[in-house]
Amino acid sequence: MNVELPYGEATLTATLPDRTRTLSNIEATTLTPLPDLDAAVREALAAPRGLPRLRELVKSGASVTIAFDDATVASYGPIRGIAIKAVLEELEAAGVSRTNVTLICANALHRKLRTSELARIIGEDLVREFGPRLLCHDAEDPAVLVDLGRTPEHGYPVEVHRLVAESNLTVYVNARHNRGFNGGWKSVCVGLSTYNSIKVTHTPDGMSMSVHGNRMHEVLDEMGRHLERRLGRRVFKLDTLLADPYRPAKVVAGGVDETRREMLADVARMFPTRRGLAQERFDVLVYGVPDSSPYAIFSHVNPILTLISSGLGYLGGLIEAAGKPGCTVIMATPVPERWDRVAHPSYPEVWERILPQTRDPYEIMSRFADDYARRPDYIEAYRERFGFHPVHGILAVYPLKRLSHVGRVIVAGPRDPAVPRHVGFETALSVEEAVARAESLHGRDCAIAYIQQPVPPRFS
Length: 460
Fold this sequence. Notes:
By secondary structure, the protein is of the alpha/beta class. The chain has helices spanning 37-46, 54-57, 79-93, 115-122, 124-130, 162-166, 186-189, 195-198, 215-231, 256-270, 303-314, 319-322, 347-354, 361-373, 376-384, 392-395, 418-421, 431-442; strands at 2-8, 10-15, 21-24, 64-69, 101-106, 134-136, 145-150, 157-161, 169-173, 236-244, 247-255, 282-290, 323-332, 406-412, 426-428, 448-452. The mean pLDDT is 94.
């Protein structure tokens, strides 16, 4: 059988044995785009789940913070700007002047956005109007952070941007649900938080794409409950489900828990349980890796993002579900060695210094994470020069945990074989050569699965 694999910025045709099964890592159903997004947002604000309307939650003269997803959330249409404007109209109906509103990009440990980049995701008119009242979150500025203590159940630290604590109301605009990964309390308790809080969930075992029974969101829900108890008021949320990266299919408003619960019911229909996709387990898994990453918006990918964060992480969700222990993963990618030392300042050092020492993500976390999180040169790049937080280069290698299930990774068609070999991966000139090598290891009749991966669009 012939298949077209994502391969860097292009595709690659590969011939696989006839016995190859096809599995899909793409949503099982597609949604219909909303015919009138403006009207849908206003309808959602008029009928919030679990909370009164915005105009009933604030009084004239109140201070309000409107936070929104940063550019790593792959939602490329106008939803952020349209939602912010609709919220402003609701607030004006309650007598809240727009001059009493602050906008903040919830970029967490991701890099801050330049003014031109903010204009791309919320619109030039809002950027011009809000000027100094449009901020990017700074997880390293003690002047803008507040410690709300620890959750009573498990002692998780809850630290957030001061605006969340001091404003009379916080409204959060979520631009997309990506399986069960984002949305919910991740928006506030990660997006507007600090490394001290974020590291509770961002571990090799902590992050999860699961729609139901998501261990990461169980922790974040506990943090969110504590936050609302401490503040004595609730956070108002707009949640979005996309038909495609540019067009929403559904918008829901209301309490954080209520909106996420409703959205997950729809997401569950789009994405069947991964462990139910295959009736058998496979010796060999084959897929392609595009030159794309949520952490490369307005930038470009690097070997860590391509091979580990995307290759084993975002695209490797079926490895444990469909692969036998000791399976062979074949990923096709040219994986050029190129680095954006402005956007990803700590990544080259992680690649050159840490990965030659160990590929054990638990060892990397225990030995290096806290050290990198305190590196003053990289922190200055995060705060002042549009770089990812220094610890992000460490977090990006945590998908190496999948190597505990995988026997070997063979990278097919690398531009420079030395790049994947740097992290202990094998190389092959072609997918066909990689499959032949896997058959020599697992047997001529070994079970092979081709995984259809989504091809992400470009942010235009």
